[in-house]
Amino acid sequence: MAGPGRGGVVVRRGLFGQLSGPARVTVLSAPAGSGKTVLLRSWISQTNLAEHAAWVPVRRSEREPRQFWLSVVGALRRTVQGAGLVQALTAAPDLDGWVIVERLIEDLAPLEDQLWLVVDDVHELGPEALRQLELLIMRMGPGLRFVLASRHDVRLRLHRLRLEGELTEIRAADLRFTLDEARELFTAAGLELPEPALLTLHERTEGWVAGLRLAALSLAGHPEPGRFAAEFSGSERTVAEYLLAEVLDRQPDEVRRLLLRTSVLERVNGELADLLTGNDGGERALQDLEQANAFVASLDAGRSWFHYHQMFADLLRLELRRTAPGEVAGLHRAASGWLAQHGFGVEAVRQAQAAEDWGAAGQQLADQWPGLHLDGGDGTVHELLITFPAEALAADAELAALAAANELARGSVEAAERYLELAERGAASVPAARMGPAHLLLGMARLLRARHRGDPQAVTEEAGRLQATVVEASDAAPLALSQDLRALALISLGITEFWTGRFARAAQHLDQGVVLARQIGRPFLEFTGRAYQSAVEIYGSFAQATERSRQAIELAARHGWGEDPAAGIAYLIQGAVLEWQGRVDEAEPWIQRAERTVQAEAEPAAGAAVCYVRGVLELARGRVADALAAFQAAERQAGRVSAPHQLIARARAWQLYALIRLGDTTRARQAVAGLSDLDREHGEIRVALAALHLAQNDPGAVEAALAPVLDGTMPVVGGEAWMVHAFLLAARAREAAGDSAAADDALERALDLAEPDGALLWFVLYPVPGLLGRHTGHRTAHATLIAEIQGLLAASERGPLAASRPQPLLEPLSNSELRVLRYLPANLTAPEIAAELSVSQNTVKTHLRNLYAKLGTHRRADTVARARSLGLLAPRVR
After folding, report:
1. 841-855 and 830-837 helices cross at what angle (nearest 10)?
2. How far, in Å, CA of 292 to CA of 128, rounded?
3. What angle do CA 107, 109, 114 make, to 5 degrees?
4. What is the distance between the alpha carbons of residues 311 and 315, in angstroms, rounded to a whole number?
5. Which DSSP letter does residue 877 get?
6. pLDDT at residue 25 tops 90
């Protein structure tokens, strides 16, 4: 079997017994160096389990579920039991981990003899693979045993197994060597220690496996093992310091010099080592040190870059400061220059800062900042800036411009303005050689300030100045940078135009910016543009908005930008589409993610949108007071930007709806009285006024308010979704006035507009079941849509579905419903399933109701049985 080799240095029979014990799952959780992997290898070898244990080591490259499960299937098939049960799999691109889990459950259902699945380094698995592994553990019968080794506890919900006595946990304390095991370790290393020395080493190391092994390594060839053991003392740090001294003392002078002088680096290669030592052969020396396990590890397959164990590096630096304190700053400066010359700008800045050479550090950061900002590296810039003394930021015009941009990104507008003023005052005294970069940085900071203010005219002006700055530069190199800044300007302009309601121009500029960003290889700009493209699209097509936001979210996931404010916009659009389609429970997690990601202080325009969408969600759930507060917060946030925010009128309209739902028509009338003439020219306000008139039983006033909206002379910014409500209100008013035919015409028009995108929210907020029921019997093109609306209304009014006879599966299950279905055999509660899937309890309950309806069942047990009969779940395991 491929996997652990036979035999082992120390036979640990007590732990072997726990691993082979009756528990179905055994977890080994301990830090690196605790001996987990060696223990597992020797257990399999010594207990003759080689043909009955599937060994799966997890590597970082296998974090995704597909590769992990292919490894699991392969390892199981190499066992005696698995060879005849587990089907082979091919590595198809669309292979789904959840499907593989179901297949394994089905394949191993006949398993009678015990089979072990040993997963080493479980902590390397991604979240989805962990959930799938957890599902396999919960669903499999007792024949398959699990042994999971990890450097730290992973999020596997195994509490039920613990309560049932089916879980064995082996921790760091359990892995510490006993005195006999320590003796066996030294004997295997060819060392015969006197008993007092052995006892001293065991006590001093407290049985820590790695410490004892390091002691054995240092003892090899030592002339006085007794003295070594006696001086091997204290805490881990003391032990490490002593071992360091032992290792250094045994190295040739040139290797000792290399270790000390390169300890100032985060990572080192041969050329850097040669530079800092003034010698040749640095790469070979580093490779030899790694080969000797001397606290040095390579970072790449070619073994060209290396790093030192953190404790080792700390102690090397301590020794360097003790023996050559006057050389430390010079080493940092030399390293900074080399790193800057070879394109490692961030590391170059850090090295200059370590040398306290603030001028060089500031110049290097200024040179790096445009690229870092355009690639989404504002977090790194912030970490570097806070290391500078305050006086250095204030005295350097370039650093002041960077500090202004950094403060804007964190919502500190006043601090940003102070730094911009300092940068503008200091720009005139910048040396001639730095004049171009200083003006570039100042121009970018001004552009970001204009975007923060939400002022399209200012963005246009600043973008023009910035482009002129690049063109006028004496250096011909900025052609590529000119393209970068053009993409930034286009996307910035599109964003501000969107927030001010200039949707056509916003779409044009965002499209141009995204295309250019992709052409010049700036994925962060492309991601930002796509997020805002989805925001523009929501006013034209829900499907297109969803697709754009999905593209942005995928880019964010690929590059680690999931917490960037632009990602928050993409999350918000996903949630907004779902809530407008009446899928409120599914919208909630997306809106929560947007709320966690968008910082209102840093992005006031976006913060207003988040409050606005939250208000719609709360109103749909009947939490009217919360909705009113959210709409008021949206209006306040929108008021913080310079140009009129496109959401202000709609936020005010929604406040009227909330007051009407609260039955407070007095406050609603007062709010209407406070509206300006300009407010009353917005179609959304006219529709809200019509809703108020309807609440006051004045059908004629409803028609008068809606007339300019319905005939198109006063369009609504919110798109066709808002027109659905206008026609729905018209239908109710005409029905109240006794004109049923006109009411039917208006209702049909509302359905016409709702059908393409499934915009059903208004039918849920202002239900017209009587009109819909009558309309079904008339000539309508939307019978299916009416049935869907009636289903939404019924689901919001009734409790659990009434019992019904099982029916054939007429409608396929969605992916979300299948995910919930797979957890039902594990007997988890709805809240527990929700926690596993990272969704709300209401979402799980909605999926359960859908499962019951589609499978024709009304109990969980019946649902599981029915799903198994249809092949949707694996058969019950024995």
Report:
1. 110
2. 38
3. 100
4. 6
5. P
6. yes
Contact in structure between 374 and 484 (CB atoms under 8 Å):
yes
For residue 119, report the phi and psi dihedrals to the nearest 5 degrees.
-115, 115
Q: Which residues pair with 297 in a beta bridge?
A: 307
> Token pair for residue 84?
């005849």
Closest of 378, 318, 316 to residue 346, by C-alpha: 378
Using CA atoms, how far residue 513 sits from 405, 444, 506, 508, 549, in Å, is 21, 16, 10, 9, 16
Query: Minimal CA–CA distance to 656: which of 697, 615, 618, 688?
Result: 688
Q: Say if residues 373 and 395 touch (Cβ distance below 8 Å).
A: no
In this structure, the strands spanning 268-269 and 115-120 are unpaired
Q: Which residues contact 559 (CB under 8 A, 6 or more apart)?
A: 376, 523, 524, 527
Token output for 591: 């809106």
- CATH architecture of the domain with residue range 13-174: 3-Layer(aba) Sandwich (3.40)
Three-state SS letters, 162-186: HHCCCEEEEEHHHHCCCHHHHHHHH
Assign 238 to helix, strand or coil: helix
Pairwise CA distance, residues 263 & 198, whole Å:
33
Distances (CA, A) of 326 to 315, 355, 425: 18, 11, 38
Q: What residue type is assigned to position 679 of the chain?
A: D
pLDDT in tens, 844-871: 888 888 888 788 777 787 788 778 777 6
628: amino acid identity, one letter: L
838 conformational bin, left if phi > 0, alpha if psi -120 to 50, beta if neither: left
Distance of alpha carbon 249 from alpha carbon 580, whole angstroms: 72
SS (H, E, C) 767-796: CCHHHHHHHHCCCCCCHHHHHHHHHHHHHH
pLDDT tens digits, 242-261: 555 655 666 788 998 999 99
Q: Are 801 and 863 in contact (CB under 8 A)?
A: no
DSSP-assigned states of every residue in 654-718:
HHHHHHHHTT-HHHHHHHHHT--HHHHTSHHHHHHHHHHHHHTT-HHHHHHHHHHHHTTSS--TT
CA pair distance 397, 145, nearest whole angstrom:
65
Dist CA 697 CA 699 (whole Å): 6
Q: Does domain 799-878 have CATH number 1.25.40.10?
A: no
Whole-number Å distance between alpha carbons of 81 and 269: 48
pTM of whole model > 0.70? no
Strands 53-57 and 115-120, sheet pairing: parallel
Please give the pLDDT value at position 521: 92
